[in-house]
Every structure is written in C-alpha cells, then in structure tokens.
Amino acid sequence: MSPTAELRRTVAELHRELTRYELVTWTAGNVSARVPGHDLMVIKPSGVSYDELGPHAMVVTDLHGTLKEGELAPSSDTAAHAYVYRHMPEVGGVVHTHSPYATAWAARGAPIPCVLTMIADEFGGDIPVGPFALIGDDSIGKGIVDTLSTSRSKAVLMRNHGPFTVGETAVKAVKAAVLLEDVARTVHFALQLGKPDVIDQQHVDRLYERYQNVYGQ
C-alpha cells in the first residue's frame, strides 16, 4: 500500500469535522498532514466542495508545494502549510479555517486572553495574533512559524485572515481548531458582560502541564 493511501483517507475524513463543527463555509478551509518518514504532505485540493472530498480527491505535494500525487490543483494555502512543515519538524498536521468567532478576533488583530481553563489547557496562554500576509507564497507560513516560535499555543490568528492551528497529528490540529472556535465564542460573550479575569500565570502553567501530560487515557 502507498505510504499516502491511509493518510489520504484520514485527511478526507477530518474535513468532515470542519463542516460538522461549522468551522468553514463553501470551499474555504483545509486540513493537511505530514507523511511520516517522507518529505511529503497530504492536503485538500483547491475549490472543491466538501461533499466531494473523498480520499481520491486528496492531493500529495512535497514540502515546497509541488504536486506529487493526484489530478487536482492543491489548496491555495499549500505554500503556507509546506512552510510550517519545513520549519516545525514537530508538527504533523495543519488546519486553516474561517470559523466566525476566531476570525472576528483576527479581524480585530487582538489576541484571545487566557481567561478560561480550557485556553490554559489546550493553548498554554493567550492565543496570539500573527501578521497580515497575502495568500500565494511563503508569507503566511512565515507569519505562523514566527508567531508560534515564541508561544506554547497551537493556534495563531492571522491578522485580517483567520486562524491556523497545528498539532503533532492532523487529528490534534483539528481538535485545536474546534476548541479555538469554542473559546473564541465564549470569551466574546464574556466581554459583552464586562472584563473577564485573566488567569494567573502560575495557574496557567499548572493547568497546561496537567492537561498535556496527565489528562486522558
């Protein structure tokens, strides 16, 4: 079996999670996964309906965005994903959405403050804002890498664009995207009621350590 066959199936299935949690509209957004042991990644094709995104539709590129397997053109965000994989070897999955609440924070150019234990658990502190960058080259990828290099966060709000999340696997990157939208919405609601309390750094550190290393099976 091709080293990409199972991963193409996984990435196709993960795109259904983006629609399930209402993180994308029309053909926007994408999930990619690094192919273990190879300088390759699997990513969604450009401009194809989510209803048509079976394993056969997924494309494989190298880590510079050159098409290696598949008949369709790769996502317009391929260069950004590829840059992340080249510069963050610990990352095995990247997700981009235009989920409404997280994207609203990106439009404001404001980090999401760490005012919820879920933010501390999953993101290890404030969710940072990345620079404005145009689609089509390495600019977005560079902004993601530069921003996350100084943060424990698995998410970055690219200014005037939307969120990108990363993870050790594509599944974990999708989980981060789902949780990001949840906390972005909740903090928005909290701000309508007043000024939410920021969690003390010592508590953030303890929450993050427990969730990352103890929580779960």
From TrEMBL:
Q: What UniProt keywords apply to this chain's record, in alphabetical order?
A: Metal-binding, Zinc
SUPFAM superfamilies hit by this protein: AraD/HMP-PK domain-like (SSF53639)
Cofactors, names only:
Zn(2+)
Q: Please give the superkingdom of this protein's source.
A: Bacteria
Task: Specify the signal sequence span.
Answer: none
Please name the SMART domains in this protein's record: Aldolase_II
What lineage does the source organism belong to?
Answer: Bacteria, Bacillati, Actinomycetota, Actinomycetes, Pseudonocardiales
Task: Output the Gene3D superfamilies linked to this UniProt entry.
Answer: Class II aldolase/adducin N-terminal domain (3.40.225.10)
User: What name does the UniProt record give this protein?
Assistant: L-ribulose-5-phosphate 4-epimerase
GO cellular component terms listed in the entry, alphabetical order: cytosol
The top EC class, named as a word, is isomerase
Query: GO MF annotations for this entry?
Result: aldehyde-lyase activity; L-ribulose-phosphate 4-epimerase activity; metal ion binding
Q: EC number(s) per UniProt?
A: 5.1.3.4
Write out the catalysed reaction. Answer: L-ribulose 5-phosphate = D-xylulose 5-phosphate
Q: Which family does it belong to?
A: Belongs to the aldolase class II family. AraD/FucA subfamily.
**Gene Ontology biological process:** pentose catabolic process
| Residue ranges of every copy of the Class II aldolase/adducin N-terminal domain listed in the record | 9-188
Mind telling me which PANTHER family this protein's record contains?
FUCULOSE PHOSPHATE ALDOLASE, L-RIBULOSE-5-PHOSPHATE 4-EPIMERASE SGBE
